[in-house]
Design a protein that fits this description.
Number of domains: 2
Radius of gyration: 21 Å
Structural class: alpha+beta
Helix content: 25-40%
Largest sheet: 4 strands, antiparallel
Number of strands: 4
Strand content: 15-25%
Shape: elongated
Low-confidence stretches: none
């Protein structure tokens, strides 16, 4: 799921604070560019955490609906939750896979990593191969 969330950026003495009203989260960066990057990361992390908890990810508000103080910057920050998960959720899970004994013997003789082959096949089957 791709989305773009409005973020309020406030200049600080040592950088910028970023507030994402739709998710009620704050982060910051030493520069505006870093604060934008940190906002994207916070949105991605919060979004996949909500998905994992079976909660609805909030729909983004319109930028002109966001209240802010004079001097604050409102900017839209985009996120692709699926891509964020693929790039950052690198946990491994154990799966019990059944295959014929003779095929396992042949794979072992050939030095084939069955887990790696399964991952590659799943990515191809799901059209996720890069």
């Amino acid at each position: 799921m791709k989305a773009a969330y409005p973020v309020v950026f406030t200049r600080l003495d040592d950088g910028y604070m970023a507030y994402v009203p739709d998710m009620e989260i704050n982060t910051q960066g030493d520069s505006l560019a870093e604060a934008i990057e940190m906002a994207r990361d916070a949105i991605g992390l919060m979004g996949i955490d909500m998905q994992d908890g079976k909660k609805d990810v909030p729909q983004p508000s319109q930028a002109d609906q966001i209240k802010h103080e004079p001097g604050e910057i409102i900017s839209m920050v985009d996120i692709d939750f699926d891509e964020y998960r693929r790039a950052n959720d690198t946990r491994t899970v154990r799966r019990n896979v059944s295959l014929p004994s003779w095929l396992n013997v042949e794979a072992e003789k050939a030095g084939i990593n069955v887990s790696a082959v399964l991952q590659a096949a799943l990515k191809q089957e799901l059209n996720l191969a890069k």
